[in-house]
Specification:
Rossmann fold; seven-stranded mixed β-sheet; four-stranded antiparallel β-sheet; 4 helices; 23% helix
């Protein structure tokens, strides 16, 4: 598995980490990674790969769900030196498009003493947009960092996964932080401190 020679582990990682921090502090805001000349394996879009590059290091672990997990794990190992681990101890969990909660029940949600000792899900989607989109989910967020309500539209993410995250976050400050990425390098952060609802938009008639 190749090392991405066009990725700067200092400059690029810092830039992308700042975008992730901004997204976490302002839920509902869509940030976009600059397009880069990297080739992640099937099942890992570029935005998820760049999120991994910014967050992973030898001191943390990750879990890969879905098909092609071996290739993705090798790719992340070569480029971040982070280690693959079981879901019950993984710091970061990478999910392909439309992936449900199968096998995720033991993901870490923190403890009353250390609520921050929880997992972060990095879930791929087809598209994230502020505009109404065909066959998408309208996700409405409330909570810290959101003035009133924020609405975004996501296509290619499982409603079962969203229900799972909502259930895990029902006993805040315990819970799971969610980062959604799409095929266009967009990222959307839903920290466990935020409440959200969703509804299906269906077809759009122009």
């Amino acid at each position: 598995m190749q090392t991405e020679l066009n990725y700067d582990t200092v400059f690029d990682a810092q830039q992308h980490f700042r975008l992730l921090l901004d997204g976490m502090s302002r839920p509902g805001k869509i940030n976009t990674f600059p397009e880069m000349d990297i080739l992640p394996p099937d099942g890992l879009n570029q935005a998820s790969a760049l999120t991994g590059f910014a967050l992973l290091n030898p001191d943390v672990t990750y879990y890969i769900a879905g098909d092609n997990s071996d290739d993705i794990a090798s790719y992340l190992l070569v480029n971040t030196a982070s280690r693959q681990a079981e879901i019950s101890i993984a710091d970061y969990v990478f999910l392909p498009e439309e992936y449900g909660p199968d096998g995720l029940q033991e993901a870490r949600t923190g403890t009353p003493v250390y609520p921050e000792d929880s997992a972060t899900f990095i879930a791929s989607a087809e598209q994230i947009t502020k505009q109404l989109s065909e066959n998408s989910l309208a996700i409405t967020l409330k909570g810290p960092g959101v003035k009133g309500e924020a609405e975004v539209f996501v296509r290619g993410i499982s409603t079962e996964l969203l229900d799972f995250v909502k259930e895990k976050n029902s006993e805040y400050p315990l819970g799971i932080d969610l980062i959604i990425t799409d095929r266009h390098n967009n990222i959307l952060c839903i920290p466990r401190s935020n409440k959200f609802t969703y509804s299906k938009t269906g077809l759009i008639n122009y």
